[in-house]
Predict the structure.
Amino acid sequence: MTCRVLKFAKQPYYRWLANPVSKRDWDEAQLINAAIDIHVDDPAFGYRFIADELAEAGFTASERRVWRLCSQMGITSAFVHKKRGKNRLVGPPVRDDLVQREFTADRPDRLWLTDITEHPTSEGKLYLCAMKDIFSNRIVGYSIADRMTSELAVAALRMAIQRRGPVGTIVHSDRGSQFRSRRFQAELDRHGLVGSMGRVGAAGDNAAMESFFALLQKNVLNSRRWGTRQELRLAIVTWIERTYHRRRRQRVLGRLTPVEFEAIMTTRAASAA
């Protein structure tokens, strides 16, 4: 009766009934689905990072088991085949290029640029995601971590949102997997921000952000050998907040610091209104 109503063939149904899916097969199917979701969200993750994320999500599975399942499903880190230069996966844009290399803004929080850089220490690499307001060149948000994941970009965005309370700001990036991730894109949408992405292999599409990283490299990153990640982290934060924002005068800002320029220009705008 049941087979006829559901339009199931009897023989396959009774074979399944005699030998249903085992609990282990069911658990592994759940693990695979979760691993795929994690990898889609951040293609940079290999099986070790996926195992960490699964554990945080409440799954119980050894690292070797996760490796076996990832191997079966062809889930590999985007960085397995490394090339010289930035070890970042690029792909099709999830946003249009709204900037077209016009790095100008007539008020604060109209256009933010963001990118990621890295530097070695004796403990391993340290990654920095920074977000710059093109109006004053101020770094409105940043995040520092020992892994280059989507969370690195999301944390920098959240800092910028908390500090600035933007409305309709354009956030321009390259096509790195961290910025194309569902987490980052969802954060933009949640706060009413507008995503924008440059072209593949066109460094000029984010040249204004690269200029900041060049200064950071000259003044901090390459200034000495760094023994620990914490030493480098502290040096980066100190340079951004104390030197770059408040001491380093910029010709493009009329020889003012980013903090001075923003304070003066916003005061003038308020007076004119």
About this structure: Residues 2-73 form one domain.
